[in-house]
Amino acid sequence: MGREARALTPDMLLFQLRSIRPADTYALAVSGGRDSMGLLALAAAAAKLPAAPHFIALSVDHGLRPEAQAETRMVAKTCQELGLEHHILTADEKLGQTDIQQQARRLRYRLMAGFCRPLKAPLVTAHHLNDQAETVAMRLARGSGVDGLAAMASSQWLATEAGRLLLLRPFLDTPPEQLHGDLPHCDDPSNEDARFERVRWRQKRQEMAEAGMSPTALAALARDMRALRTQRDTALHDWLSRHATWHDYGVLVLPRDEWRVLPPRWRAALLAACVRYFGGHAHPQRRDAIAGFAAGLDTAASGAAVLGGVLMRWRTKQLFLGREYAALAEKPPPPKAATLWDGRFHMKAVPDGHFVAPLGPAGVAAMRAKGMAFDKTVPAAYHAVLPALFKHDADGMAVLSGAVTELHGACVSSESLFDALFDRSQDW
Asked: Looking at the predicted structure, is the pLDDT value of residue 417 above 90?
């Protein structure tokens, strides 16, 4: 007979959270499902312990199911009974008919980032051992390498349109039965819908366990892959500190001679990290996409390539990585409260009535006409993605007011960038 699962305790939750990332306030992602209601029960009990942090529960109504409003009201009522602060975040956009789960995920995390960032509050989720195992299984099936098989991390900065959001997952090694409590909960029918890849793997769990691929074994594989990734990322971080230049135009400059000495897999990993960060992606690009992105580097003395909103240019001695104007121009202006623009510039004093957007080719020409001299050591294509101040005219058209100066903001530090590329950064 197997041992009976030991339920988690409130002090265990506090220990886990403080071990991952200490904070004065933690936000809780509470959908109303059994897992998240287990997290809610633990947090409510932990909030009563001495020197406990403040907990705020967040629920998102995606506007996809009529039952969603009743579910969020159930969570709100439970929080009131438990004495926990609770907020319902309502969808402010209509989701399309395809790739619903990914669209809902993007919306959910954007709304929660908008709430959490002003409070400097990490978002705690109830992802557990079985969720981690499903993630590893999906990545195995796709032929993922070290990065993919490392699966979910206990701490991760997630890019959203409202700024980066710090996710904490304290239960990745915890079986769900240890997390579940006695609070009321609801069941989302999509969790049983075999149209979704994760659900199909969930339905194979018993069969996989019988073949030796239990959730515990798959999670152990993820831990080993994370250890390998950490070793590699530490070495790449050190390499950047020694060889890279972070230009104050928001462009990473690498020496090609030193670049060629790096092992091919490390070069691919560094490019993937850059594309993920500069492009604002939740996940790295596929390995074949990265290989195609880098293909010309070994054969041409100079050239350019674009992937995921990132423009790479190279000359005989230097390799440049920065933003692609076409991708950046499509993004809406950030919220007024946002202080980190495009992950590259800290904004500190944007005048009232103005917003920050990329300078653009027309803006570059206008600033040159006014006598502004651009640094020619950086390819001209990167001048258009410098931040600039705009305002709307009477017809609602965006009108350039001028370039961003040191009064308005400054490029993030190289140390901050290198940390961010490998998910080490403190974003607030």
From this structure: yes
Minimal CA–CA distance to 324: which of 309, 313, 312, 314? Answer: 309
**Cα(273)–Cα(157) distance, rounded to whole angstroms?**
13
Distance CA 51, CA 326 (A): 49
What the block records as the tokens of 242 is: 């020694």
d(CA 166, CA 20): 11
pLDDT band with cut points at 50, 70 and 90 for residue 63: confident
Residues 134/140/142/143 CA torsion (nearest 10 deg)? 160
Q: List all residues 6 or more positions away from 328 whose beta carbon is below 8 Å from its beta carbon.
A: 309, 342, 358, 385
Q: Rg of the Cα trace of the chain?
A: 23
Region 25-29: mean pLDDT is: 98
Q: Is there a contact between 158 and 109 (Cβ–Cβ < 8 Å)? A: yes
Q: For the residues 281-289, what does the mean pLDDT come to?
A: 85
What is d(CA 139, CA 117) in angstroms, rounded to the nearest whole number? Answer: 30
Distance between CA 314 and CA 158 in Å, rounded? 29
The DSSP code for 60 is E
With a cut of 70, say whether residue 5 has pLDDT above it: no
pLDDT at 159: 79
* Residue 77, both tokens: 């009522």
Helices 129-141/215-243 angle, 10° precision? 70
| 305 backbone dihedrals φ, ψ, rounded to 5° | -150, 150
> What pTM was computed for the model?
0.83
pLDDT at 1 over 50: no
3-state SS class at 155: strand
215-243 helix and 264-279 helix, angle to the nearest 10 degrees: 90
Q: With contact defined as beta carbons under 8 Å apart, do 134 and 111 qualify?
A: no
For tokens 């366990």, what's the residue?
Answer: 209
State the DSSP H helix or E strand holding residue 208, giving kind and residue range, or none if neither.
helix 205-210
250: which residues sit within 8 A by CB, 6+ positions away? 322, 323, 342, 344, 345, 382, 385, 386, 411
Looking at residue 337, its pLDDT comes to 57
As a whole number of angstroms, the distance between CA 398 and CA 367 comes to 16
Q: Residue 238 corresponds to which tokens in the numbers above?
A: 């050190």
pLDDT of residue 330: 80
Q: List the beta bridge partners of residue 306.
A: 311
d(CA 305, CA 313): 7
By three-state DSSP, how is residue 245 classified? strand
Identify any residues that bridge with 410 across adjacent strands, giving them in sequence order: 346
pLDDT at residue 97 tops 80: no
